[in-house]
Specification:
Blueprint: E1 6-10, H1 20-38, H2 46-59, E2 62-69, E3 72-81, E4 86-94, H3 103-117, E5 122-125, H4 132-139
Length: 157
């Protein structure tokens, strides 16, 4: 069995489109969780997400890493610090076959270190409330749910 060569590359905004298929896979994964929990799908588009990410680059420092295995993009992590010195893990995703191999741990550790080095006074991330695997992963880094916030969303047809 072939073990792929893993490479983590620091990227910039000009390379953002290489993660589109992965971001769309993440959206589909979260949408399936949403259907299972709340009965309807999430709706977004790559163009909307890309505009949001462009704004992040204008607001403050951004760290964007692309994960390659045998020259194929298999994951990414994007973090940012805003003017209020809030650090956020904005988006992170690894293909299923690349999980539980230490890659996600390496990515998140590097990004948390970078956020602290860039003076983030508070670090947060958003995770789907039904994504128990991701929640357990983030717990291992000391993240916890600190809000009793609950929402209701209107399903669009």
């Amino acid at each position: 069995m072939h073990t792929p060569d893993i490479e983590i590359i620091t990227a910039d905004l000009s390379q953002i489109d290489v993660i589109q298929p992965l971001w769309e896979a993440l959206l589909e994964y979260n949408s399936a969780l949403h259907r299972g929990c709340l009965g309807y799908e999430l709706h977004s588009s790559w163009d909307h997400k890309k505009d949001e990410l462009r704004k992040r680059w204008k607001e403050g420092p951004v760290k964007f890493d692309i994960v390659k295995a045998d020259d194929e993009v298999v994951g990414y992590c994007l973090s940012a610090v805003n003017e209020a010195l809030q650090g956020e893990i904005v988006s992170v995703y690894l293909l299923e076959e690349c999980r539980r191999k230490g890659i996600g741990t390496r990515l998140l550790s590097d990004h948390l270190k970078w956020l602290r080095e860039n003076n983030a006074e508070h670090i947060f991330l958003y995770v789907h409330p039904c994504n128990s695997n991701a929640i357990q992963f983030y717990w291992s880094f000391g993240f916890f749910s600190n809000s009793p916030l609950m929402e209701t969303c209107v399903a669009t047809e």
